[in-house]
């Protein structure tokens, strides 16, 4: 009997792995250069892009996925592949772009172990400036709905996501940020951007206090922040009232209890998190 369950587990793992490989293979491989900086990136182009303007998701990976192989940053944590899954594409067709930061570089040139940093005295890195330029070039080339450009990032990519929001508060329709940090002094500049921020309360890599300070600062700017401790709880997901609360909120903070730095796959795999993101649209005046 034990051998039987071992075989079933092995078959299930192989099936999940092959499905993920299939999703990875849907991404094209490209390079983008700005001045002296070149970054590889992977891009998924939806079939429906031929007929209508569609949202764009920018996915910024963490430090462990840096390099120039243009592969490992979309293999892990579901940060890129979750959006191209057929279930998601049927409901929310979208472009997905995953740039890769070169080895030894950072999306934001700060110490990840500090709780906050001074945005105005932290120039944009060459790598993140190249990502911003990449977004500009994609808008010119593809039928992208500029009112539905979304940013998501984890760990080092969480820092990058916060930075891009602060650097251009009118570009993004919403953000999903995980295990990152930013400058609370800039909170009022980005208070109108819907943000769902995630952090583990025992994160030993990026202090959770960084997220707490950003959320408190956004709240102090007059914005209500919904606190959701575990959106993956089945009882929670089955509650129509709780789902409505989330979908009607522009600012959400999830602090996982007794969890560390890596909280990402279970968050991206939550259908409600994705539904929340796609419900947001930039209103241009």
How would you portray this structure in words?
By secondary structure, this protein is of the alpha/beta class. It is built from nine helices and nine strands. 33% of the residues lie in helices and 20% in strands. It has one domain (29-278): Alpha/Beta hydrolase fold, catalytic domain (Rossmann fold). It has a nine-stranded mixed beta sheet with strand order 1-2-4-3-5-6-7-9-8, with helices on both faces. The model is unreliable at 4-15 (pLDDT under 50).
Low-confidence stretches: 4-15
CA-atom Rg in angstroms: 18 Å
Give, in order, the helices and strands.
HEEEHEHEHEEHEHHEHH
CATH-level-2 architecture: 3-Layer(aba) Sandwich
What fold name stands as the CATH topology? Rossmann fold
**End-to-end CA span:** 65 Å
Portion in helices: 25-40%
Within CATH, the superfamily carries the name: Alpha/Beta hydrolase fold, catalytic domain
- The proportion of residues in beta strands is 15-25%
| Total of DSSP H or I helical runs spanning 4+ residues | 9
Q: Report on the biggest sheet.
A: 9 strands, mixed
How many domain units? 1
CATH class: Alpha Beta
